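Hypothesis: this fold can be encoded by more than one sequence.
Test: take the structure tokens below, design a sequence, compare later.
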């Protein structure tokens, strides 16, 4: 199951290319969702029959993303767990190679609170805003039940991840690392032992792959289950919030990385400026 570094690098570049093209689709989806939301606010008869195809299309794009991610993960699971195409900011908040499923509920409640506050006057007057600020009692119960279920499944995956991570220091790995170290100190050939270590690590990668796929399944199913609870126009608002958060965090993270890189380059350039005698000076 383990891929060579060359194949891993090629897979990373290929998925990076797919990811960039998928971001373009997400931006396009966002534009369509925003237009649908505005049309609804302008009372242009945006009923379920008109909104459902758009929502279905957006969900299909999420499905496409996770399908491709799974395909690439089969040959380079480590690359998917530590994606080079994401910013350091995004990487810091990753949970098993992606966003934590329970975040979807925080997103939902945050947007609901924002829209509730913005339209409070209309709600008091008895008008139905039809957005996330107007969730019904039944919807809140269903969302709460789904949240508890999601957190429970999330916790199980986290516990399984901990077991896999701890297995890196199991008896076989400790013994193999000691044997290889002894052979290296004696300047002897370590090929056989390193092959054993690779096989042992490969088994752990298989466990990581299984966890990644289950985590991605939970991410996708959480989105779908939330959308089943919401009305069509509420789903539009939820998908808008999800896309905006993802796209802006990605952009902010990339800008931050670029700024840090530029700062490091500037400092290095200053430290290497030649002195009056024409030689470089390093601090």
């Amino acid at each position: 199951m383990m891929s060579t570094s060359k194949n891993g690098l090629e897979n990373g570049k290929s998925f990076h290319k797919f990811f960039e093209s998928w971001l373009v689709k997400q931006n396009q989806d966002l534009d369509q969702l925003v237009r649908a939301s505005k049309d609804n606010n302008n009372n242009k008869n945006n009923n379920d029959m008109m909104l459902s195809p758009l929502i279905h299309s957006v969900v299909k794009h999420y499905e496409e993303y996770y399908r491709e991610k799974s395909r690439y993960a089969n040959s380079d699971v480590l690359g998917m767990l530590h994606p080079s195409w994401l910013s350091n900011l995004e990487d810091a908040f990753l949970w098993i190679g992606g966003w934590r499923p329970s975040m979807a509920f925080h997103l939902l409640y945050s947007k609901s609170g924002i829209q509730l506050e913005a339209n409070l006057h209309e709600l008091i007057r008895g008008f139905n805003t039809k957005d996330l600020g107007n969730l019904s009692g039944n919807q809140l119960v269903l969302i709460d039940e789904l949240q508890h279920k999601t957190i429970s499944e999330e916790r199980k995956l986290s516990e399984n991840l901990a077991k896999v991570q701890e297995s890196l220091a199991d008896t076989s790995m400790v013994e193999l690392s000691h044997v290889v170290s002894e052979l290296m100190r004696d300047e002897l050939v370590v090929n056989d032992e390193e092959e054993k270590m690779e096989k042992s690590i490969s088994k752990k990668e298989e466990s990581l792959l299984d966890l990644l796929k289950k985590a991605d399944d939970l991410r996708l199913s959480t989105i779908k289950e939330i959308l089943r609870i919401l009305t069509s126009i509420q789903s539009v608002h939820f998908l808008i919030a999800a896309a905006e958060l993802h796209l802006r965090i990605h952009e902010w993270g990339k800008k931050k990385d670029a700024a840090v890189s530029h700062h490091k380059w500037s400092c290095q350039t200053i430290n290497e400026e030649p002195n009056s005698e024409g030689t470089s000076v390093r601090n």
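The chain is about 75% helix and 0% strand. Residues 5-253 form one domain.
Hypothesis status: open.
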